[in-house]
Amino acid sequence: MLTAKFDQLVNQLRVLPGVGQKSAQRMALHLLTKKRPQGIALAHALDDAMRGIKECQRCHSLSDEEVCPLCQDPRRDDSQLCVVETAADVMAIEQTANYRGRYFVLGGHLSPIDGISADDLNIDQLVRYVTQSPIDELILATGTTVEGQTTAHFISEAVGRHVKKVTRLAQGVPMGGELEYLDSMTLGQALQNRSFL
Questions:
Q1: What is the pLDDT of residues 62-119, one digit of tens each?
Q2: Where does the pLDDT of residue 195 fall: very low under 50, low under 70, confident under 90, or very high at 90 and above?
Q3: What are the structural domains of the chain?
Q4: What residues contact 78, with CB distance under 8 A and at least 6 apart?
Q5: What DSSP line would sit under the chain, residue for residue?
Q6: How far apart are CA 117 and CA 184, in angstroms?
């Protein structure tokens, strides 16, 4: 312990994922001894972000404005809606540059063990969205975990009659993967999701 202020900085750095006590101490010492101007800039950027970034009123992703740039973009395909768990998933899909439709962020996945039910997610808003907007394809891009699969099934049941087609991201063998090293569940998914050449 150096000072109460140092301890406070270390404790606040520990809220970041994957940052334990030692890592937080190293970060704090690095900022204080070698990067004070950058530390002050970081503090300002954090303050601006925490105060200025909010949830998009349409898709529930993150935005500086009430409606995010993706929802405002008239070039996006309104007939496709990709449902994801978090804003990080939107960023990951956008980085592929292969999808031009709209998004909807659930805010997590169903997890009865953790006490997360449909009421804790944006599922009611999703049902409202698809009943008010004509959607040709709803793409379920939730995780491949048991919770992600359960969430996808729940949503498919809730909105199935309101959209023309409900699809799920393909799952299976990753690029460069060797069959002998895959678990049986992944290999089974790959066999079910095989496609024509």
A1: 999 999 999 999 999 999 999 999 999 999 999 988 899 999 999 999 898 898 988 8
A2: low
A3: 86-170 (3.40.1360.10)
A4: 101, 102, 133, 134
A5: ---HHHHHHHHHHTTSTT--HHHHHHHHHHHHHH-HHHHHHHHHHHHHHHHH-EE-TTT--EESSSS-HHHH-TTSEEEEEEEESSHHHHHHHHHHT---EEEEE-SS--BGGGTB-GGGTTHHHHHHHHHHS--SEEEE---SSHHHHHHHHHHHHHHGGGSSEEEE---SPPTT--GGGS-HHHHHHHHHT----
A6: 29
What's the pTM? 0.83
User: Rounded to whole angstroms, what are the CA distances from 33 to 27, 28, 38, 108, 154?
Assistant: 10, 9, 11, 38, 52
Do 134 and 118 meet the contact criterion of CB atoms below 8 Å apart? Answer: no
Handedness of CA 39, 41, 47, 51 (dihedral sign): negative
Question: What does the alpha-carbon distance between residue 54 and residue 68 come to, in Å, rounded to a whole number?
Answer: 9
What residues contact residue 70 under an 8 Å CB cut-off, 6+ apart?
A: 59, 61, 76, 90, 94, 102, 103
